[in-house]
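Support request, please re-run this one:
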Amino acid sequence: MNEVTATHFRDHLHTEVDQIIANHEILRVRRQQGGAFVVMGEDDWRAIEETLYLNQTPGLVESLHRAAQEPLGDGVRLEDLDW
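Re-run finished. Output below.
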């Protein structure tokens, strides 16, 4: 994660934001008074939100790990599903 001062961020706002979005980066911005904040693109934030949500579903992660270990030929063909 890159880090800049709040002054630098303010002075280079458009360039920094363009780079953050284009490269899927996260930028930590330090404040002179102390503290900091993080800037990231909306698509990246939504991906994090989805991951957090899915990790809250009991048993989902374990189920995905088990499914990943199954040979591809052991699955059910889409045509064989009874919709």
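Helices lie at 6-11, 13-23, 42-55, 60-69. The mean pLDDT is 94.
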